[in-house]
Write a sequence for this structure.
């Protein structure tokens, strides 16, 4: 969702720097943007506009400090007046903000009564006016910020910029702020990936802490305003991992990276997974939670645990989990799965689980993310930065972790690893068949509906496949459990309705084949994904059986199909409409 990038230092092309900083945050999703540059002690450059980040003029401005923001509208429409930075009556205090000020209506009314003029429909605009108002009585800017923290409610990441003094004050509650430093200056961003081209030394601000940038230096203060040492950590990826390189889109780049990611997991995670398995064994009830794709990974996990580890594990959508926490106790284990580690529904659930004293084992892709820091124990997905809004490599990485974890619980890690390696071979094979999938996409591109069927562990794979197709191609796609066909779904099948059938040679094979015949008898265009071909399939894609790890190449087929459907229909796979990469507001 919204993105923040700020710099103060020796570099004189700060506008250009912020421009590229905001560009690198585009993937989070946004509908408008703004930038403030201090030109000298009396003049600034302020630009706020709706739509894509474009401004050639920025590159010519000579200046050494400023900040920018990409906005994903929550309070107030996509209008120039609602874009950040917002400012006070004197245009001396500027603010960029991610999140929601829940009590802004009350604050706004009080400020208006005191004579402040507010022009936007946003919650953010109250912030610079609050600072202006408090500044009438308080001289110390740190104290003003501490007062503001006390007055506002909600989950936020906020940066104040005091123009005359050239000082930035940043703080957060839940939403991330990352601090960076290199030999020429200091940075603030909402995402470590935006800092990767400039530094690999970062600090993830904690809730309630205040970071101050003044005279190109950083000072950190704890919740009580006491100075604190900043302990920088090393980013676990390189800047080039965040670039497109030879690829046209991040989606296809990230799909293609899957064999490498999965191999790293297979080769390096045994010890970490053993520790995680111990936590599961010692717990009385384990709960996988996630949103969207991550939730579907949780569902796949329930089948892995039942079939391989002979263990019951619960799965819940994270936004619902917070209504289900009453049964949690000290011995419960909550396992949140989240690529970004910032998804608000995950963070809220984790906080509630911790209130109940449950243990939290996070599986996330982002080192230093809020989830990473909130959890008692953590596993890093090692998928590298995922910039396409659609989850691809992070999804299969989650499956690989859960698959190996189930095998460790069963005492059969070696077998799990062998099967995962077979699956990696199949992933490579399906990536090499991209041209055939592209042809299928051009055949299906004008269809209104695509249905996807699977049984057992292939059922959540069908759900995830449907999500991959609908998110960016905007074709209605729906995943079903094969057994549900006769309970209503079959009514939707007409002549030439595309139905994708996942039919690995497992215990579901015969029943799934029957489903294929049933839809075929009603005129469906049947696409079989299986190790064995059958005349019922109008098109067939061969994926060898690799035990339940077949789920991984199966989903890669749908990722590639989703990608080509999106291109065939003329849309951008990396930035689907209305979607954001990190869903940091409810
Ligand atoms: C789908 C997708 C989303 C995310 C969901 C959770 O392609 O990307 O459904 O999976 O928003 O995000 P994380 O994993 O960051 O918590």
């Amino acid at each position: 969702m919204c993105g923040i990038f700020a710099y103060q230092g020796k570099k004189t092309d700060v506008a250009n720097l912020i421009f590229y900083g905001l560009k690198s945050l585009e993937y989070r999703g946004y509908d408008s943007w703004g930038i403030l540059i201090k030109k000298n002690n009396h003049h600034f450059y302020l630009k706020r506009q709706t739509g894509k980040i474009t401004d050639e003029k920025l590159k010519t401005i000579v200046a050494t400090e400023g900040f920018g923001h990409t906005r994903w509208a929550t309070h107030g429409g996509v209008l120039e007046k609602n874009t950040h930075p917002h400012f006070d009556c004197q245009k001396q205090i500027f603010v960029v903000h991610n999140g929601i000020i829940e009590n802004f209506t009350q604050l706004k009314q009080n400020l208006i009564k005191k004579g402040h003029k507010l022009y936007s429909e946003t919650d953010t605009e109250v912030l610079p006016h609050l600072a202006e108002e408090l500044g009438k009585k308080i001289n110390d800017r740190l104290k003003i910020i501490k007062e503001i923290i006390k007055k506002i409610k909600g989950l936020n990441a906020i940066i104040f910029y005091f123009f005359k003094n050239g000082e930035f004050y940043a703080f957060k509650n839940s939403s991330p702020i990352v601090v960076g430093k290199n030999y020429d200056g200091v940075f603030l961003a909402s995402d470590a990936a935006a800092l990767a081209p400039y530094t690999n030394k970062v600090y993830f601000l904690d809730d309630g802490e205040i970071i101050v940038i003044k005279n190109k230096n950083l000072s950190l203060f704890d919740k009580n305003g006491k100075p604190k040492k900043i302990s920088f950590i090393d980013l676990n990826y390189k800047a080039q991992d965040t670039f497109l390189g030879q690829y046209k889109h991040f989606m296809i780049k990230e799909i293609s990276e899957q064999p490498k990611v999965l191999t790293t997991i297979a080769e390096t995670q045994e010890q970490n997974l053993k520790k995680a398995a111990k936590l599961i064994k010692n717990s009385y009830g384990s709960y996988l939670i996630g949103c969207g794709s991550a939730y579907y990974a949780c569902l796949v996990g329930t089948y892995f645990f039942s079939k391989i580890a002979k263990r019951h594990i619960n799965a819940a959508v994270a936004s619902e989990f917070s209504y289900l926490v009453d049964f949690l106790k000290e011995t419960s284990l909550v396992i949140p799965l989240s690529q970004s580690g910032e998804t608000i529904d995950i963070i809220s659930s984790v906080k509630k689980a911790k209130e109940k004293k449950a243990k939290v084992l996070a599986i996330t892709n982002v080192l230093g993310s809020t989830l990473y820091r909130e959890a008692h124990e953590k596993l890093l997905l090692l998928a590298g930065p995922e910039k396409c809004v659609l989850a691809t490599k992070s999804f299969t990485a989650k499956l690989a972790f859960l698959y190996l974890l189930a095998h460790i619980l069963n005492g059969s890690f070696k077998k799990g690893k062998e099967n995962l390696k077979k699956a990696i071979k199949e992933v490579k094979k399906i990536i090499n068949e991209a041209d055939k999938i592209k042809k299928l996409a051009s055949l299906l591109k004008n269809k209104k509906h695509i249905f996807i069927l699977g049984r057992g562990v292939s059922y959540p794979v069908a759900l995830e496949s449907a999500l991959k197709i609908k998110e960016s191609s905007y074709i209605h796609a729906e995943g079903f459990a094969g057994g549900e066909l006769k309970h209503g779904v079959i009514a939707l099948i007409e002549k030439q309705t595309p139905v994708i059938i996942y039919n690995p040679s497992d215990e579901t094979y015969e029943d799934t084949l029957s489903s294929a015949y049933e839809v075929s008898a009603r005129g469906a265009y049947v696409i079989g994904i299986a190790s064995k071909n059958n005349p019922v399939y109008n098109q067939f894609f061969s994926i060898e059986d690799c035990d339940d790890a077949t789920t991984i190449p199966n989903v890669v087929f749908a990722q590639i199909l989703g990608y080509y459907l999106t291109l065939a229909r003329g849309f951008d796979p990396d930035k689907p409409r209305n979607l954001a990469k990190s869903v940091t507001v409810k």
Remarks:
- The mean pLDDT is 94.
- The chain is about 35% helix and 25% strand.
